[in-house]
């Protein structure tokens, strides 16, 4: 999952205590930058339509250079309150948003609020407030982390401190610039474009008592000090370390300011003493951990590659080493904080399993193009509440800090293959197939992702599939009751006969759909001798519910 767009970033949100007069000062800048962002989004791509030989039109969107987009924004929405850096940040944000939705269908202010505005449920002022984006300032390490927004470090005595500039640029290859006179910056600390704040004590090291207390924001020559709520624990130590590295000139820090919080975004891999960083471990060769993501459960399975004549064989199902089933059990009205907490705990459990079994590779399914609309209202609501990206982002950050690689593979037919080949719960069985595909992809880029189909082995495995749960009884027509339907054993027997003549997994998947045999193995409910059931979401008191047993907030096999 490499690439420039897939660079891992971490965001720490801190509540601010901005007075009313400061809010009145910042809102005009936010409105101006929001309008510039929306205009940059519109001008960031051009639509071209070409026709094939068959007459079918093909629509393509070509990216416009950033310089041309900036000139268009300056011509239509010139800065009145803000400065050139605010315009630059707005243009970059608009281009990034257009890159995510090339067709130009993004709605600023959310589609839900737009529908409410269309129905007359909210007024113009409330909709305009919803469309107001946070004030954004991208990071620039040569200006002590950021040009206009910098975190303020304070010691135990209430005095502001700053890092002493290094003699030379520690990262000279990443960015080299010359001064306006054509001469390179020379001298001790001259490579930094910004001096330490006036009145700040310049020190050589970060003391444990130093904390982040405020944000210094400068727009168009006007400087305001936004007080922040003091952060304690791991987040407080991390935020202080990030502010110190930014003051030292070795870390870019992007800052966003909205109605109630300040959001600090940075590269976690650049923080050497990150709280989530763990000591490296020796990984087992030809072993991977597969993950299957579902709205109600996350399955993780550790798999060893199958061996044939002493050599790895990626066409066989492989050997299951251990597995883990995480069931978040979030309420329907769970907030963003509760969801983020549950996904973070799930990612911690998965990384813990990977380190315990010494897996250097994590394989996740590629979930692109997933849409609702055909499964009913309940399924659509479930998919809309599914925070699959939150879990993936938390997992990728923790894996990178532990030296574990994360890759994506195609997920087609993984549920059918996993449940037929492995006696595991549904999500864990599909995760085992994902792990096998990841190992096959690592062995050969051109390999066939689907395993070899054995007409003599698969029919025997079909008899191990569990029967489908009984549906709620209701009024039926004559001749359509349970007595007229074949039993589960009879359906499996007929399917096994047809499976002997099936030539591949795709055809077997279609036969399963036609026969009515349930290919998904049920997830365990409650504690048993093999599983320790637990709840991964936060409790109502705001604390983590830690059951007896492994304390991971997950159902786990003894492996």
Compact overview of the structure:
This protein is α+β, with helices and mostly antiparallel strands and 559 residues long. The chain contains 14 helices and 21 strands. It starts with 9 loop residues before the first strand and ends with a strand.
Key features of this structure:
5-stranded mixed beta sheet; alpha+beta; single chain; disordered C terminus; 6-stranded mixed beta sheet; 559 residues; 14 helices; 19% strand
Number of strands: 21
Structural class: alpha+beta
Provide the gyration radius in Å. 28 Å
Overall mean pLDDT: 80
Apparent shape: globular
Largest sheet entry: 6 strands, mixed
Strand content: 15-25%
Read across the widest sheet, the strand sequence of neighbours is 20-19-14-15-18-21
Q: Segments where pLDDT lies below 50 for 5+ residues?
A: 179-188, 526-559
Total helical elements? 14
Helix content: 25-40%
Distance between the termini: 29 Å
Protein name: Transposase
Biased composition (Basic and acidic residues): 469-479
Region (Disordered): 464-490
Secondary-structure blueprint of this entry?
Layout: E1 10-15, H1 20-43, E2 45-51, E3 57-63, H2 66-76, H3 84-100, H4 111-118, H5 124-130, E4 135-137, E5 139-140, E6 145-146, E7 149-154, E8 160-163, E9 201-203, E10 211-219, E11 222-227, H6 233-248, E12 254-257, E13 261-266, E14 287-293, E15 298-304, E16 306-308, E17 311-313, E18 319-326, H7 336-356, E19 361-365, H8 377-384, H9 388-401, E20 405-409, H10 414-421, H11 426-443, H12 458-462, H13 488-499, H14 505-515, E21 555-556
Parallel strand pairs: 8-9, 14-19, 19-20
Antiparallel strand pairs: 1-13, 2-3, 4-12, 5-6, 7-8, 7-10, 10-11, 12-13, 14-15, 15-18, 16-17, 18-21
């Amino acid at each position: 999952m490499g690439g420039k767009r897939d660079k891992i970033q971490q965001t720490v949100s801190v509540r601010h205590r901005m007075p009313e007069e400061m809010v009145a000062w910042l809102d005009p800048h936010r409105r101006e930058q929001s309008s510039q962002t929306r205009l940059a989004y519109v001008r960031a791509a051009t639509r071209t339509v070409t026709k094939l030989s068959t007459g079918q039109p093909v629509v393509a969107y070509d990216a416009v250079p950033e310089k041309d987009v900036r000139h268009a924004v300056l011509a239509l929405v010139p800065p009145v309150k803000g400065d050139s850096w605010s315009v630059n940040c707005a243009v970059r944000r608009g281009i990034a948003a257009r890159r995510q939705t090339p067709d130009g269908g993004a709605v600023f202010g959310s589609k839900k609020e737009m529908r409410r505005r269309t129905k007359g449920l909210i007024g113009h002022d409330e909709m305009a407030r919803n469309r107001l984006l946070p004030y954004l300032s991208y990071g620039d390490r040569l200006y002590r982390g950021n040009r206009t927004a910098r975190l303020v470090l304070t010691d135990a005595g209430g005095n502001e401190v700053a890092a002493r500039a290094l003699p030379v640029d520690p990262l000279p290859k990443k960015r080299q610039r010359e001064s306006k006179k054509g001469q390179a910056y020379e001298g001790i600390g001259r490579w930094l474009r910004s001096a330490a704040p006036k009145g700040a004590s310049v020190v050589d090291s970060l003391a444990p008592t130093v904390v982040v207390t405020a944000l210094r924001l400068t727009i168009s020559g006007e400087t305001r000090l936004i007080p922040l709520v003091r952060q304690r624990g791991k987040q407080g130590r991390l935020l202080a370390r990030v502010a110190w590295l930014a003051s030292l000139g070795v870390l870019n820090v992007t800052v966003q300011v909205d109605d109630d919080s300040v959001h600090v975004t940075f590269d976690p891999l650049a923080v050497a003493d990150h709280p989530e960083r763990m000591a490296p471990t020796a990984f087992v060769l030809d072993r991977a951990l597969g993950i299957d993501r579902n709205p109600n459960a996350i399955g993780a399975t550790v798999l060893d590659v199958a061996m044939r004549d002493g050599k790895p064989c990626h066409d066989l199902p492989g050997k299951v080493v251990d597995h883990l089933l995480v069931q978040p059990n979030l309420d329907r009205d769970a907030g963003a904080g509760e969801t983020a907490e549950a996904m973070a705990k799930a990612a911690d459990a998965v990384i813990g399993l990977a380190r315990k079994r010494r897996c250097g590779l994590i394989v996740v399914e590629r979930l692109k193009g997933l849409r609702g609309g055909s499964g009913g209202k309940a399924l659509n609501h479930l998919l809309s509440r599914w925070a699959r990206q939150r879990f993936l982002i938390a997992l990728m950050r923790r894996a990178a800090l532990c030296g574990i690689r994360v890759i994506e593979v195609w997920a087609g037919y993984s549920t059918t293959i996993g449940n037929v080949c492995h006696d595991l719960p549904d999500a864990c069985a599909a995760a085992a197939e994902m792990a096998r595909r990841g190992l096959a992809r690592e062995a050969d880029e051109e390999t066939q992702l689907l395993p070899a189909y054995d007409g003599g082995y698969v029919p025997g495995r079909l008899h191990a599939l569990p029967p489908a749960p009984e549906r709620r009884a209701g009024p039926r027509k004559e001749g359509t009751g349970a007595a007229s339907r074949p039993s589960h054993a009879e359906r499996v027997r007929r399917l096994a006969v047809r499976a002997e003549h099936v030539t591949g997994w795709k055809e077997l998947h279609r036969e399963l759909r036609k026969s009515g045999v349930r290919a998904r193995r049920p997830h365990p409910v409650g504690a048993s001798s093999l599983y320790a059931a637990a709840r991964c979401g936060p409790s109502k008191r705001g604390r983590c519910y830690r059951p007896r047993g492994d304390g991971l907030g997950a159902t786990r096999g003894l492996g």
